[in-house]
Amino acid sequence: MEYVGFATLPNQVHRKSVKKGFDFTLMVAGESGLGKSTLVNSLFLTDLYKDRKLLNAEERITQTVEITKHTVDIEEKGVKLKLTIVDTPGFGDAVNNTECWKSVADYIDQQFEQYFRDESGLNRKNIQDNRVHCCLYFISPFGHGLRPLDVEFMKALHEKVNIVPILAKADTLTPTEVKKKKFKIREEIQQYGIKIYQFPDCDSDEDEDFKQQDQELKDSIPFAVIGSNTVVEAKGKRVRGRLYPWGIVEVENSAHCDFVKLRNMLVRTHMQDLKDVTRETHYENYRAHCIQSMTRMVVKERNRNKLTRESGTDFPIPVIPSTTDTETEKLIREKDEEVQRRHSEHEPEHEHSHDEHSDRPLEPHSDLGLDPGPEPEAS
Ligand code: GDP
Question: Where would I find the Septin-type G domain in this sequence (predicted)?
């Protein structure tokens, strides 16, 4: 066979996606004080973003009463990643914790809704995608397995987001206890019908090493982690860890906890799969649901007013299920305005291409110009 050249397709895709950059949105949830903020710092600060501080633990403690979002632009070997961390209110402090998952579930839905609107709107090119790709759910090491609240929380979210359960503060447990707790939690997850993120099966033609690693990863659920914001000296090396009178626990030592496993999973091996599942399963569910209720609404409207618009081709405007007629009208108006606006914006568009990059980060960070788009690369 002659060589035509489509074998370069993977390279073309690669070049394009590197140029465009990647994004990932990670949410943390669970009782307050379980080390969520500390872990996020440990996960992304040391390795990927050495000199930057997210909020420190003290600031967080006073702050975790509402959902906060933080974006960092990270670059490694020329590959850009826009990482968004969504921190949710640490529940457990309040006397009444019923429905504490509600605001989190609403938040996830809102991101889907926004995406759905944008996707069916006029400017689909530069959609800001804020959909949540993964939720690390922190489980207390002090309970006996899952508490009712954990079950309730995860069940409220499991159809909306990829849940990865985390056994927090693993340094407070002995290895045997960790093992037992993990087993119990896995059992309960099954028993209560909680659908956590499923690692994809690995291909049968993968090598044995890879298969074994994959199996180990699956058996590690829930990841037992340790977080720390301090660097200590262990055997002459400076490592991130926790210093106790009897010794040091090292965050990145896989004999001490699953931190590295978790980070590799999130960053190196399963980031794309988490995004794919978000898009293909969770978002798709939301979208189907929305379209269903919109269709119902349109049919109802038609039946009510048979004299009006005849066409069956007009794509219904995305509206949330509980919408009313006046809201629909408002949306149509908004769309009209958008058309007008885009018309009038049309001429200076080239001049603005820089702006388009600058509205990518959600919350402009204070420092340096790290994020202005990709360097113009000779193509
Ligand atoms: P959050 O409320 O879940 O965000 O929890 P923080 O990250 O603010 O941590 C609460 C407290 O637990 C702080 O004093 C941390 O130093 C401590 N902490 C964080 N991670 C760990 C851990 O892995 N092990 C232990 N023993 N303590 C931790």
Answer: 20-293
Per-residue pLDDT tens for 6-28?
888 888 888 888 888 889 999 99
Q: Report DSSP state, residue 264.
A: I
Nearest-CA residue for atom 10 of ligand 1: 33
Distance 172 CA to ligand 1 centre (A): 11
The encoded tokens of residue 340 equal: 């007008």
Residue 61 beta carbon below 6 angstroms from any ligand 1 atom: yes
Name the closest-CA residue to atom 7, ligand 1. Answer: 35
- Choosing from 27, 28, 38 the residue with most ligand 1 atoms within 8 A of its CB, the one to mutate for a pocket test is 38
The predicted-structure confidence for 23-66, as pLDDT tens digits, reads as follows 999 999 998 889 888 888 888 764 433 444 444 555 544 444 57
Rounded to whole angstroms, the Cα distance separating 162 from 275 reads: 9
Q: Which atom, in ligand 1's list, is nearest to the CA of 229?
A: 16
Task: Give the tokens for residue 122.
Answer: 């006029």
Rounded to the nearest 5 percent, the helix, strand and coil shares of the chain are 45, 15, 40
Q: Which single residue is written with the structure tokens 């980031």?
A: 271
CATH of 6-48+63-202+211-230+272-295, one of 3.40.50.10800, 3.40.50.300, 3.40.140.10, 3.30.360.10: 3.40.50.300
Q: Whose CA is nearest to atom 22 of ligand 1?
A: 169
Domain ranges in the chain are: 6-48+63-202+211-230+272-295
pTM for the full predicted model: 0.75
